[in-house]
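Thread title: Can someone regenerate the structure for this chain?

I was given the following input by a collaborator and told the matching C-alpha cells would be attached. They weren't. Posting the sequence so someone can regenerate them.
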Amino acid sequence: MSAYFLAGIAMVFWGIAPIFGKLGLGEVQPLVALTIRSALISLILLVTVTVAGQWSSLSEVSAKSVMFIGIEGICAALLGQLAYYFALKLGDVGRVSPVVAAFPLVAMFLGVLFLGEKMTFYKALASIFIAVGIVFIKY
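Best answer:
Regenerated them for you:
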C-alpha cells in the first residue's frame, strides 16, 4: 500500500468522525467526551496489542522515542483534540473541521524549519490555497 492510499483512508475516517463527534457532544462536556473517547480507544488498543502479540515490541522502544511519541500524544490527542471538541460543540462542523484539517500547513512549515525538509514551489502554492480557504470558510 502506498502512503497516499493510506492518507486517503485517514482522510475519509477523519471526515466521518466530526459528524459523530458533533452528535455526541450535544449533551456532553468536551472534557468528558474526550475522556470517553480516549478510554475506549485505549481499551481497543490494549486488546489489539495483546491479540497481535506485540507486547514484547514495547520493550524495544527507546526512551527518546517514548518521549517524542508522548509529546505528540499530548499535543494531538489531548490538547488538540480537547480544543477541537470545544470548537465543535460551539461551531458548525462545516466551519470547524476545515480549519482543524489545515494542521498539515503548520506541520509542513515546522518540518521545513526543524527537520530540514524542502519547501518547494508547489508546497508554497498549496499553503497559500489552504490559507485562503481558511479565510473563505470563516465567512
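The chain has a mean pLDDT of 93.
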